[in-house]
């Protein structure tokens, strides 16, 4: 009885109630996302991320960014058009297609997914890369995609993670490759218990005591900054908050029950304004998180960030492009005559196999000679 009351109370606190319609719709959306991701990995990943890379890493990344960027565009479509979540941008207007190091606070398990909404508007959706938990790289289907997109796995142990970060980030230094390298310096999502532990550590070590964010870990940030500095345009300081401080989960997004509003504040810092030495860069990061903490305190009081409306609503025309692409992918899974499959087979030099497979369907006994 007590459990049912807790569930009822939790359901009431959501922006939309969890109805049978939302459950069915969410299951269908998740099935489409999983199936199309699987098709992308089967038909496109071998060509784009393996075969083409033997000839050109630059063009391999361009093809991967284009094909998988179209798939990633389904998520902002789910958030903003199907779930009707309002994504409100504020702070500074940033130009499209910059090479940036992006750092954000980490309120919940799905913060990183809302950054796709910003990247989509800036033409960098397929070029966004994350430093994320190694366990996420092991997820079926989605985890495989994270490998193709060159996300950087972390075990949250400095002695293990720093060499991995430096090795992988050193492959991103080509200024011709668009890049949004994204990290969460707190290292984990925010909870009251983690905040208390962070405050105790800060008090003992003479560091700022923060209320709305955890103390940032500086080593990973500096490693990325040091390696990429000469090829970056700027650092984006992104602060994410949710209406009524209601932090959503992945299932909230899938079923469309929360959040009603996501607020994303962006501050653009030209790369030349960030100190070069590790000590000064670490102090700069700590100061930045103090500003972020104050920004979130003001958000709690006012319900919004300053200077709202820096980016427009998601274009319906763009959404239609992603929908058409999804339909083509779904058709690919049930027919060999889909143009996407034909192009892929040609890229693999498998036209002969494709013709003979069609012959088999017509009853051609000679197929067994292949």
Automatic annotation (TrEMBL):
Its EC number is 2.3.1.51. Residues 100-222 form the Phospholipid/glycerol acyltransferase domain. Keywords: Acyltransferase, Membrane, Transferase, Transmembrane, Transmembrane helix. The keyword Membrane applies. The keyword Manganese does not apply. The chain crosses the membrane at residues 23-51, 63-79. SUPFAM superfamilies: Glycerol-3-phosphate (1)-acyltransferase. Pathway: Phospholipid metabolism; CDP-diacylglycerol biosynthesis; CDP-diacylglycerol from sn-glycerol 3-phosphate: step 2/3; Lipid metabolism. It is an enzyme of class 2 (transferase). It comes from the Eukaryota. GO terms for cellular component: endomembrane system. This is 1-acylglycerol-3-phosphate O-acyltransferase. It comes from Anisodus acutangulus.
